[in-house]
Amino acid sequence: MDLKNKVLDNPNVIDNNQLINLSFTVNEEKYEIQTLPTEKLINILRDQLNFVGTKISCGIGRCGACSIFIDNELANSCLVMAYQVQGKSITTIEGLGGVTIDEVQEAFLNEGGFQCGYCTSGMIMSVKYLLAINPDPTDSEIQEALSGNLCRCTGYGGIIRAVKSLKNKKELA
Amino acid sequence: MNTNINVKKDRVRPDGVSKVTGTLKYLTDLTFPNMLYGKILRSSYPHAKILSINTEEAEKLSGVEAVITYKDVPGMNRFGLIIPDQPVLCDERVRYMGDAVAAVAATSFEIAEHALKLIKVEYEELPIIDTPEKALQPDAVRLHPAGNICHRASFTNGDVTKAFEECEVIVEETYEVPRQLHGYMETEGGVVIPERDGGITVYAATQHGFKDRFQLSRILGIPESMIRIISSPIGGSFGGKDELNIQPYAALLALKTNCPVKIHNTREESIRASLKRHPMKITAKTGTDRFGKILAHQVKITADKGAYATLGPAILDFAVEHAAGPYIIPNIDTQGISVYTNNGVAGEFRGFGGNQITFALEGQMNRLADVLNIDPIKIREVNLRKATDLGPLAHRIAPTDGAALVLNKIKNIVETSNEPKSKNEWKRYGTGIAIAMHGGGLGFGRLDSAGGRISLNKEGQIEISFGFEECGQGLLSVIENLVLEEIGCSQEDIKIVIGDTSVVPVSGSSTASRGTSIVWQSLQKMKAPFKKKICEHVATKLSLQMEDLYLGANGVWKIGKEDGPCMTYKDCAKEIQDATILTSFHFPVTPDAVDGGHFLYSFGGIKIDVEVDILTGKVKVLSMDHVVSAGPVVSPKGFRGQIEGGAVMSLGYTLMEEVKMIDSQYVTHNFDSYLMPNTVDVPFETNVYAIEELYKGDIYGPRGVGEISTIAITPAIVKAIHDAVGCWITKLPISSEEILKDVESRGMLTWI
Questions:
Q1: What is the pTM of this model?
Q2: Judging by beta carbons within 10 Å of its beta carbon (0-12, 13-18, 19+), is residue B447 exposed, middle or buried?
Q3: What CATH class is the domain B31-126+184-237+241-273?
Q4: N or C: which end of chain B has fewer CB within 10 A?
Q5: Cα–Cα distance for residue pair B157/B466, rounded to 1 Å
Q6: Domain B449-586, what architecture?
């Protein structure tokens, strides 16, 4: 979507001066775009930059489908506005593995940590974050860390097994 | 977390890598050049006359390309899978808050949304009917021309009145269940593209592409051949995307603007318009002799249909059919009624009426066991069906001893597990069990077409195709695993084609736990002729004996020659003109003309431990032990996932979920007020046991397991709560206040 369209996007906005130049990186690639300062990050990612691996489900920060990292901190991208990511570094699901599959993604594959897959991008980001700050989580730490990510398909069994398999792998190493 | 299924042996599912890397494109992720964005204006009132609709201002808004109302529907302005009673765009009257009145296509979602605000609709409010009881009053406003009764269903056998007189014990109770949200993470949406010939291509989730095509053809007034439906992959459905949702609006707008039109519901829009699980009130009166043998069972079911029918009639039939479950009851009288109201439309949802009726049936069993002071397992044993007994509508079914096998295993689990012990003076612990029987397929008297196609395509791949959708349930794994097993080729040789009406054969709907059954049965019919076609060619070509050849990895192999195929599939494909085998059959159905009666049943049992906090009334499920009898496990991880996931969905139904309505208006709009289980609400201790053997002589193979694990959860939790604190719950979701009140009234809180 180009800038011209973007201005039209909100008919209540007539003042072009409201647009800001936003400069940030997504998955280590630099982007400079013009946008409204209040545009939601999820819309920028999905609609403007076509990072559609990040999903939108509730739009109010309750389901975690849109989870991403901002400067390595976990965030719901539906609750973040454009101006808040000025100069920041964003990581989406597309930025996790690169050429090979990340170990968390691998664990989800092996343990059946997903079914429809729509919560999976966000869930994997949360697991990644949990293990980054706490490589050896207890059961209740796993529960708490993932409680902001809803999954309607798995009942969380496969997800929990995926996290535990990574934990066990570390213990064996 | 234990299971007897060999999960580690399982392959990664075919859609796995694309899902964990976020590269899979869902239909709501798609964009096309010149694409417009659509929004739908829904009714402002649950019940009103439409006096006028003025779209002038909206049309003038810069960026708006089209505004449509009922005047723009060229064909039949109605939809609905059984009774097409729902207007695509309302003309004279709205019957619920989700009714569509107009739709807009614009250059952005924001402009489209703004345009909705500029559409002026004048309404004259009508009295609302917000309960089935009000709808059934003789002087109630008629919501539809034929009145307020959508459907009646009943089953009677023997004489309950007389039998009740002979009963030693009679238990009577009314069970109330709420409106549950499917809660698929991907809300309804997709893109419709206008084609040069005046037709359309629809990229939108549905559970039966051909049915969408049929319904859209009626609405648009164009032949089905001009409509292509691409319906897969889907970010969850659970029955909720079976009926049309945004498709007609995107289609009408695309044809009017001649541009691709995308609609993707926000969660609020989704909750307002989507189907929900039927709220029901079920009164059950059940009597036994002194040994617990049921002599009489009388059931009255009242379902709140909401404004329109969709599959409601079939759901009521299903509930009536399953009123006796796996028990042999000599005198039974089940009466069901499904009633139109101005509430949200209730419709198809995983379990299909089985969840509601089994809450009542197993609730009665557990209460009777309590009154008679018999073990809950014993009372079930006394009444349980035998392998060759008739089905619940006194109709012939495929013989199965699943009920007994499941109950035995549950008994064994109960006997060998430790009773949960209290670690805290304010916590109480209890155990509950329940079992369920669940029919697969659509049932007698319904067109239940099944089939599939296998071919060797030009690229030398074994192409296997079904008219199914991948909603997350793992159908792709099921297909891959069965092709590997039945054909003998390798994973790399297979190409799976589903979810596109322009290329798939008729397989029927991706619903009713029928997918796995149909894939297996289709392969049984197709594998021999397919192998023969290919091997015949190779035998002639290489002057070999047909009997010495078999299909293996990468090509046709000769017995005894293990160094590689004697002809690769690629080479075969160059030479064989057509190695396509198509099969088409009807889903196995009872030979008895009993409307809706099923033939293939699966069985499930559950043992649940709970902790009840008597200071707060909160219930926590500590462990779940599942036993499922549904034939051989085809896809181990998929099977386990279906059982665990279905159970947690029902845990939510039992303990926390309700899409609340007040005066026929939703007061639940999003996941802030609609709570679904998260990781904190589910037990880490979940065990899944599969009973894989089928009854001797069974020729129907593995059954689907999409629904069975959701059925018996509620009554097991309710029994566990009774075991813990002594109160019987009759209404869902279970209220902490109600438990507290009961606990207080019986003096369990010692300071009071």
A1: 0.96
A2: exposed
A3: alpha beta
A4: C
A5: 40
A6: 2-Layer Sandwich (3.30)
- Sorted by sequence, the CB contacts under 8 Å of residue B577 that are 6+ apart come out as none
Q: For residue B325, what is the DSSP state?
A: T
Asked if the C-beta of B644 comes within 8 angstroms of chain A's C-beta atoms, the answer is yes
Q: Does domain B280-443+592-745 have CATH number 3.30.365.10?
A: yes
- Candidates A8, A110, A119; nearest CB to B111: A8
Domains of chain A with CATH codes = 3-95 (3.10.20.30), 103-172 (1.10.150.120)
Shortest distance between the Cα of B542 and any Cα of chain A, in A, equals: 42
**Predicted confidence (pLDDT) per residue in B583-624, tens digit:** 999 999 999 999 999 999 999 999 999 999 999 999 999 999
Q: Is residue A81 less than 8 Å (CB to CB) from chain B?
A: no
C-alpha B98: how far from chain center: 21
Count Cβ atoms within 10 A of the Cβ of residue B102 and give its class: 0-12 exposed, 13-18 middle, 19 or more buried.
buried
Alpha helices in B417-508 (DSSP H): 475-487
pLDDT band at residue A173 using 50, 70 and 90 as cut-offs: low
The interface predicted TM-score (ipTM) is: 0.96
Contact B108 A12 (CB under 8 A): no
Cβ neighbours of B21 in A, within 8 Å: 53, 93-94, 96-97, 101, 105
Angle at B397 (CA atoms; ends B396, B401), nearest 5 degrees: 125
- State which residue of chain A sits closest to B641, comparing Cα positions: A154
Give the side-chain half-sphere CA count within 13 A for B743. 26
Provide the chain B residues 20-39 that lie in CB contact (below 8 A) with chain A: 20-26, 29, 31
